[in-house]
Amino acid sequence: MGKPTGLISRGGSWGIRVRVPDRLRVHVGKNEIWKSFGAVGYADACRLARIERVAIDRRFLEAEAELGRAPAAPLSDEELLHLARAFLHKMEFDAAPLPLMPADREAEIEALDEEAALVGQSIEDASVQQVSKSFASWAGRKVADGTPELLRISEAVQQAWLEHLGRRSAKLAGHSTATVDPIFAGVDGSQPLSAPLTVRAAIAAYKNDPERSGVAAKTRAAWDFRFRAIEELLGPDRLIGSIRREDVRACRDALMKMPANAPKHFPGRPLAEATLLGEKQGLPKLSAKSVILYVELISSLFKWLEREEMVARNPAQGLKGPPQPTEKPRRPLTVDEINALLTTTKPGEDGARPWAYWMVRIALLNGMRLGEIAGLAVKDVVKMEGVWVFRVRPNAYRDLKTVASRRDVPIHPLLLECGLLDLLNDGEPMRMLLQDAPPVAGTSNAAQKRLGRLVRASIADRRASYHSLRHNFRDALRAIGAPQDIAARLGGWSAQGNDAMEGYGSGHSLAMLNTWVRKIGYAEVEL
Questions:
Q1: How far is it, in rounded angstroms, from Cα 27 to Cα 58?
Q2: Which residues contact 371 (CB under 8 A, 6 or more apart)?
Q3: Mean pLDDT for each consecutive 10-residue tract of the chain (527 residues)?
Q4: Model confidence pTM above 0.85
Q5: DSSP label of 422
């Protein structure tokens, strides 16, 4: 086995010396890596060199990975000022009480003068840079040694450090604690200081707040997708307190130019690049409704940050999205459209009833939502108080949209006549009731897409959708004169009116609900 690369001998001492590639020097922080093994034998030196070379190569790989990432945008002057004020705030809050004895005060003043002389010498001083780097890390900003960014942060920290020392000396001398430098006016240690949040950290804090613990998985997945775009546009490493009105406006304007489904069209590309490519290829942009959802999320984020005193004010307050084109609302299906959809989903030649057969008929006769039906488990079809019901509860296949969605719905007698109970087949309680149904949970929501294609294949009007069947169900309840609270209970809607009154009692009995369900029907519909 040959001599390891980089093994050297000097004055009877062995060591390893490896040159750092030029492109990695900023990330590694050195021009070369050298380590001494001492006065060991040649065999031991070779063994130690091979071990050390593995560690050095790993360090180079980490630097290569860091090099491949987009560098964080340099801190703005405003962000540096925010960082300096935060550093002073922390020093003022952490300061020890003033000594009582005059001699002790004089000794501390002398020590502070010496410290100020050392701190004020140069921002390239190792101790100043080390403190600056540690504070930047505490504030969520990773800075490499030997970079211009570290020098700028060191200068800001140096200013704050000297301000603190000047204030301390003035207090010890019995003078008023006037601010030495005007840029630090209003900063003191009267309040405990939390770490200055970056945009990325602020978004993570918002998503992890306990009040959002009950958010449905589908909603959280949509959040993650939108927040990734917001984080990239605002700058993930930018301090959240430095975001101004013009920044959130620029974020909104960038979203209005962004192509729809940008991550799918241009995976791994930055949004700015994806936007340019989308314009060149003539791809459709995000809809006005989609942009409004992003804007609402930005507003919600900053409203929460302001409430939690993580930012001084909400820069997104009153921010508006683009105007939406006037669209006619979703509508119920006509009799002919219902019959066309029933024909499209009719049983096969062998009499088998596919999942779409049940999806359409349950929605029409029981008014349940797409996810509520597709996510039914065998255990959710039970007989209670002599009535067969769908028990709509969260399970492994899907969450529920609202609190009112949790309910027991008497099964329409026509569904029982069509053989719904045959789906139970003595199956495992946790098995999906519609075994051939595609997944309904997650961002893909294959069930919704498949049903959408079935509706479009049967009905030309784009305002018609699978959800239109819930509109038909609501009209059917009106046609039979069902009271509003009965309709709300059956459809899983929030009851309007006196909420306090609605909270009393256990609600309508299943027998009462079943009476109304049995009345639901559709003239001229070929069920």
A1: 13
A2: 398, 401, 440, 441, 447
A3: 77 86 74 84 80 76 62 67 81 86 90 85 77 76 79 86 88 76 74 66 87 74 87 88 88 93 88 90 91 93 86 86 74 93 88 89 94 91 95 83 86 95 84 84 69 88 89 95 93 69 71 96 88
A4: no
A5: G
